[in-house]
Specification:
- By secondary structure, this protein is α/β, with parallel strands linked by helices.
- It has two domains: 45 residues, no CATH class; 238 residues, Alpha-Beta Barrel (TIM Barrel), CATH 3.20.20.70.
- The protein is 24% helix and 22% strand.
- It is built from nine helices and 20 strands.
- The strands form five sheets. The chain has a nine-stranded mixed sheet with strand order 16-15-14-13-12-11-9-8-20.
- Strand 14, helix 7 and strand 15 form a beta-alpha-beta unit.
- Helix 2 crosses helix 3 and helix 7 packs across helix 8.
Amino acid sequence: MTEEWLTLGDPGVVATLYWRSLPDGRVQCLLCPRECRLREGQRGLCFVRACLGGQVVLTTFGRSSGFCIDPIEKKPLNHFLPGTPVLSFGTAGCNLSCHFCQNWDISRARRSERLHERAEPELLAAAAKRLGCRSLAYTYNDPVVFLEYAIATARAARALGVRSVAVTAGYIHSEPAAEFFQWMDAVNCDLKSFSDTFYRRLCGGALQPVLETLEYIKHHTGAWLEITTLLIPGENDGDAEIEALSRWVGEHLGPEVPLHFSAFHPDYRMTHLARTPPATLSRAREIARRCGLFYVYTGNVPDVPGQSTCCHGCGGLLIRREGYVLTHWQLSAAGECLHCGSRCAGVFEGPPGNWGGRRQPVSFKGQGE
């Protein structure tokens, strides 16, 4: 149920577009494949969309669980304005229920107290510009569930020349996806597994909608796309699955789409498993490269070779990364290899930034009230 204080006139509550009325008096949310059916006062599984006044509303517009300036590589995005700072924020809730969620205290939050700061879209966009951030990231929890807030912020950011980055699981219906991704300049999308059984058993979702979202982003938007797969020991780290996933990416999206294999650590409902061994990530990277993918990375472990970028043409080192710090750069202003002239896929604009691995919390208390 919604909190007793929540009404249509409260701050943070806004009407939404993607829903319909049902003959039994309920409303059905049409934002994502979950299609929650809600009676008055009920919330969807995502927690942030609710039935109020006979319609589906978003309850977290302008309400955030926190703000921070991060390196863009932390999203992770290795081919989008490397070395630059990004102002990151999220709200609460998620439309998947992953047992292994690494950010569960925010994404699985069920209390409004997590949303301790307010910041309207125009304030966020202006702050990103003022603080020297090249982009805003909608992250920490999935921005799909706060679509209206994210789009309004992206619209304000675009007017000021600030880019928008979505970090998402891609679990969204096609019509809202078209509206959402037209405002995004870059996307890191989770491809949690290449098994529908995995999605249903451990995420409470399905694989096919995510594949459709990935194809839509790549072929029908101007957003730069990178993919992350969290490898969980004994669940989705087998050679056959990694090969199938890699071949699908190459055939349906193209070999130039970067793929990140990230290390799992025990958390939420899967604390009984061990951390992903670094060797597993290296093995997955080699499999994906043998499948023809140009840019394959490892994450959440120290691995300079696995996190650096090499030219797909001549094999020369283009970007050396030590954590989030760039220590070597061999690209022209247009993103061409200085060794052979091959174009490195991505969004490169002049020399790289030098933000490094800094993390700078930002507060809007007293500004967004």
